[in-house]
Amino acid sequence: MTNDTSNKMWGGRFAAGPDAIMEAINASIGYDQRMAAQDIQGSRAHAAMLAAQGIITDSDAEAIREGLLTVLSEIENGDFPFSAALEDIHMNVESRLKEIIGEPAGRLHTGRSRNDQVATDFRLWVRDQTDAAISGLEALMKALLGQAEAGADWVMPGFTHLQTAQPVTWGHHMMAYVEMFSRDMSRFQDARKRMNESPLGAAALAGTSFPLDRDATAAALGFDRPMANSLDAVSDRDFALEFLGASSICAMHLSRMAEELVIWSSAQFRFVALSDRFSTGSSIMPQKKNPDAAELIRAKIGRIFGANTALIMVMKGLPLAYSKDMQEDKEQVFDAADNLMLALAAMTGMVGDMTANTESLEAAASSGFSTATDLADWCVRELNMPFRDAHHVTGTLVGMAEAKGIDLPELTLADMQSVHAEITEAVFDVLGVHNSVASRTSYGGTAPAQVRAQIAAWKAKLS
Length: 463
Ligand code: ARG
What we know:
By secondary structure, the protein is mainly alpha-helical. Helices cover 60% and strands 5% of the residues.
């Protein structure tokens, strides 16, 4: 005996409806309506399969199909009456379907549970976002390639400990990020392969006695195959965790690049100018042009890694199979995905627009005794000194230059020979930054020839 206030979908054994607080804690419709398209896609595949298997009639399947299309257009047009009493997207859609087509709607849930339904919807949603991350990364890599190509031989300081280390090329620095973002891309590609199996047909947890064709629904939804264990299918959210893990690493990479742009665009560095399109002003200081987009990208790792932590804590220690805890999976992933896509797009825009200040870059590359290693290497090569001795000679010369307030190339040959008598005039050739970078031709090194080869290889891969 149901009463009027008990739930229309599952209220058969209930005499009263839920407390308002119960409804508030239980409802997910406020956010899982974002999976409406996936829910309807899954239901259409399920209904078509039920008819093909003779479990429901063709006319019922046709009514369901048309009704679901009506529901979808209502949702897309923003005039769908979402109801918290109906908890989630699954019951909201089914209940509206019933209002539109009547009795056949009640046959849609045959051989299915919300447990396999939500697992299917969420996989489809995360798969779409995985594809979006892959395209976003591709666009960013192309923007970086554009910068690398323009400045394959511009020199800039390479840093370790944020102290001048050795001159590198602008193209080399840009291509370092291309490599990092390409690994991010391959993490998403790997995760996609593993997630692309269909939970649909696992039903509540144990499978079903109806003669479902799980291969057919899997194929209709673009999955490679049905998941092989129904308990696993409704229980795990590791696909979402892999998405968040890949997103976290990608956001970490974005934060490092963002930090460099913040430093580089400062008045103290002046390595790059960010475009007006990706900068903001100050309400009090008229001279300011702030790198807000870079700062916000730098911060996004906070919420994205937070989502990763939150979801792995939700899943930790849950017994099989489905538990309602798992409803807490979605908001984390939605927020992380939204912010990752935004950060990728903003970084792509900033990188595409920014202009390098080649004079500042070169001046900075030439300061800070950046070619000291070249000097030591020259002593090893030309004077056959052990590297440790060459290191010591060079260190002495750096100390001498520092005391005189000059840089290495400004020392005289006499200065050099006062430290080591066999040094010749030829040493000055390796002290210039252009010669320095051109000499680093080892595979993966900073020489423009190496960088151009890497650019060509990546352009071929991405085209
Ligand atoms: N809204 C639920 C969720 O997101 C759907 C699954 C409900 N299943 C259940 N057995 N109550 O997890």
